[in-house]
Specification:
This protein is α/β, with parallel strands linked by helices and 284 residues long. The N and C termini lie far apart (40 Å). The strands form two sheets. The chain has an eight-stranded parallel sheet with strand order 1-12-11-8-7-6-5-2. A four-stranded antiparallel sheet has the order 3-4-10-9, with no helix packed on it.
Length: 284
């Protein structure tokens, strides 16, 4: 199952790309409109990009009345990314989404590196949302924690139905004058360099929880997708690659089928968790 990483695709301006996905994940929605951070907001790096968008979005009411109905016409299942600055804000948005038929899943953005975080723990936010919605809840976690496996266990116990691993990690880029390129100095790093970090997080979470995992971070080929599946992901999200290759979902899907066959797997489900299996003993 292929998705996009939240914020990496505007389905209403690129509907053909969105329809290549098995589900579309929206930009993060917050209760009130946000203009986002001051420019510069995006900076290229040698192996990826930094962004400091700052959760720019029209706010919950405009999203529900204007954006969501338009997304519903795409014919693709809709996952809504939900953000906030307190557990109650997350929960209120989840409750509002619970009434919308177009929404199939909620992804809780618990780890944006570009804005202040809610004072409550990730588990407390999940628990607050769980009490206000019947929709599946996926907790999107940061790789910049001391123990992602323990965090995964905590949000699972609080009522999460799945995990999204990983969000971007904080990084810095300097210009020719040795000044920060981004207006906020640091931003969220994404791209090929994030894949080893994502693999480690997915691998750790798979060992400690039975929750389905959306693996993301540095995926640009079918081989990248297969590696995350082998680490324990049951779904894959494409991020930075969508900025340069609008046909990436179709291409990666085809490449993944080829990689699965070459590795001797009949399906992605068969390959899930393969990295956890003991290697076969060598024969003389």
């Amino acid at each position: 199952m292929l998705l996009n990483a939240s914020g990496c695709l505007d389905a209403l301006t690129a509907p053909d790309t969105a329809r290549q996905l098995d589900a579309f994940v929206t930009k993060t929605v917050t209760p009130l409109p946000r203009e986002g951070n001051a420019p510069v907001r995006i900076a290229e790096t040698a192996a990826g990009m930094l962004n400091s968008i700052g959760l720019a979005n029209p706010g919950r009411e405009a999203f529900l009345h204007d954006v969501l109905p338009a997304l519903g016409e795409l014919g693709v299942p809709i996952w809504v990314s939900v953000g906030g600055f307190a557990a109650g804000e997350y929960a209120e948005t989840c409750a509002a989404l619970d009434e919308r038929d177009a929404v199939t899943t909620i992804e809780l953005n618990l780890s944006c590196p570009n804005v202040d975080e809610a004072p409550e723990s990730a588990a407390e936010i999940v628990a607050a949302c769980r009490s206000r919605t019947r929709l599946p809840l996926y907790a999107k976690l940061s790789p910049a924690v001391s123990d992602v496996a323990e965090l995964a266990k905590a949000v699972a116990a609080a009522g999460a139905d799945g995990l999204s691993l990983v969000n971007t990690i904080r990084g810095l880029a300097l210009d020719e004058r040795l000044h920060p390129v981004l207006g906020t100095a640091t931003g969220g790093y994404s791209g090929p360099g994030l894949k080893p970090i994502a693999l480690a997080a997915v691998h750790a979470a798979f060992k400690t929880t039975a929750l389905p995992i959306v693996g993301m971070g540095g995926v640009s080929t079918g081989r990248d997708a297969l590696e995350l599946i082998a680490a324990g992901a049951s779904m894959i999200a494409l991020g930075t690659v969508l900025f340069t290759d609008p046909d990436a979902p179709r291409r990666v899907r085809a490449e993944l089928e080829e990689e699965l066959a070459a590795a001797g797997f009949g399906s992605a489900a068969e390959a899930r968790g393969a990295a956890h299996l003991a290697p076969a003993a060598a024969t003389a």
